Structure formats: C-alpha cells, structure tokens
C-alpha cells in the first residue's frame, strides 16, 4: 500500500473519465447487505491492451475497493463484498484472462478477506463447458467462493431484483452512468421483486464517523456491548 499510494489516494476526479466505460462499479447489495461490485471485462477498451495500459483497469478496481472500505462497510456487521463478473459477448479466445487474473490477485492478496463470493455469469456455451471442467478440480471451499452460474437468474437466490441490472438477473435497466455508484435502497431480501423503499433515508453512511468506519480490535477488558458499539458523528 505504501508503494502504490506513495503519491496519495486515488481521487474520484482522477478516475472519472475511465469510470464512464462501466468496466467496474457497484450496483447494489445482497441479502446480507454485502455490496456487489460488477466487472464487465468486454468493456475494457481494446486500446488499453494495445497500449499496455491494463494498469488503468487495476486503478479503477482499487478506487472501488478503497471507496468500499471508507463508505460502505459497517465494522462487525458488513465487512466484505461479492464480485459479479459478466462474460457476455466473449468467446473462449476473447476472455481477457490477464485482466480477470488481476481482479483475483488484487482481491485475494491486497484486500484479504474482503470477498465473500465470485459470481461468474453470462458465459457462452463453450465457456460453460470449460467451467464445468474447472469446477471438477476445485476444492469444496473453492466451490463455495467461486460460483459459475448457468443462468444469471441464479443471482436472485442472494439478491433482491432491484439490486441488480436486468442482464445479470435483476430488474433494473442496464446502467448508462456508473459514478456516483447507482445504488438502490432496500429492502434487500433475496428474490424480492417489489422494488426499493421510496421512503428510505438517503446518505445513511454519513451517520458513521471516520473512526466508526475503521472499527477497532476486540478488547477483552471491555464488555461485548462496548466492543460492538458503533461510533457516530
């Protein structure tokens, strides 16, 4: 982290132009309130590969993860997220293996413990066949973490429909704007189709202080209530 952020944090203004591609963004939360980050590999501009600028993709991913840690977690309640990787429109030879490998590397090495599940959806028939072979050699723990979906609608087992776009099993139109992140209010129950609660209080994240987002280590000399108390502004 000291090396990567030696010139300071990644600001929203510095990634705004690249965010417009809709390659990486948050779309909603699952039934346990874990945020879902969508990765659409086919939207990575071909020029980025030609110019060997895949670092721009990683920069977007890191920005999203830092945003998540600062504004979307609640210590002791919500501390990890899910990744929805959309492979629609990609054949076997078109899958950007290096980019997806970077996603896995960043998530599992630099943000250890932050990923609840990887959902791989909208695979072609050929990719689905390969996924079947991959699943056969995975351990039980790996199968719990890495989910190859035969249908994007399977995401409804973990998400309310208004928390996802329609092409990944939800009910919301495919987004055209990606930042500020197009998040919808609850309810968050799996499979709910009634839409967001229009009376929900907006900007609830502002209630927690900076210290509240950071949390603290468990202190055995304190009571459970003191250890789990959130710090508000």
Characterize the structure shown.
It is a single chain. The protein has helices spanning 12-19, 46-50, 54-71, 97-110, 125-137, 140-145, 210-214, 224-228; strands at 24-29, 35-40, 81-86, 115-121, 146-148. With 233 residues, the chain is of the alpha/beta class. The chain has a five-stranded mixed β-sheet with strand order 1-2-3-4-5. β1 and β2 form a beta hairpin. α1 (12-19) crosses α3 (54-71) and α3 runs parallel beside α4 (97-110). The longest helix has 18 residues, at 54-71. The radius of gyration is 18 Å and the shape is globular.
Alpha-carbon distance between the termini?
A: 28 Å
Strands, total number: 5
Tell me the helix content.
Answer: 25-40%
> What radius of gyration results from the CA coordinates?
18 Å
Summarize the structure.
With 233 residues, this protein is α/β, with parallel strands linked by helices. It is built from eight helices and five strands, in the order αββααβαβααβαα.
């Amino acid at each position: 982290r000291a090396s990567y952020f030696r010139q300071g944090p990644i600001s929203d203004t510095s990634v705004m132009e690249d965010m417009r591609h809709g390659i990486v963004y948050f779309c909603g939360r699952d039934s346990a309130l874990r945020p879902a980050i969508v990765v659409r590999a086919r939207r990575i501009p071909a020029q980025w590969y030609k110019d060997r600028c895949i670092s721009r993709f990683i920069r977007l991913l890191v920005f999203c993860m830092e945003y998540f840690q600062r504004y979307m977690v609640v210590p002791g309640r919500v501390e990890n997220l899910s990744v929805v990787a959309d492979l629609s429109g990609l054949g076997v030879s078109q899958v950007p293996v290096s980019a997806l490998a970077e996603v896995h590397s960043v998530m599992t090495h630099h943000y250890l413990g932050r990923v609840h599940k990887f959902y791989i959806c909208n695979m072609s028939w050929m990719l689905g066949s390969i996924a079947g072979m991959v699943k056969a050699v995975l351990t039980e723990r790996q199968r719990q973490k890495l989910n190859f979906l035969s249908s994007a609608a399977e995401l409804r087992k973990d998400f309310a429909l208004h928390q996802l776009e329609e092409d990944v099993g939800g009910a919301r139109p495919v987004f055209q704007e990606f930042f500020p992140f197009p998040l919808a209010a609850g309810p968050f129950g799996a499979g709910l189709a009634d839409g967001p609660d229009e009376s929900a209080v907006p900007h609830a994240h502002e209630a927690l202080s900076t210290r509240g987002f950071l949390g603290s280590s468990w202190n055995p000399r304190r009571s459970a209530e003191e250890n789990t108390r959130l710090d508000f502004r």
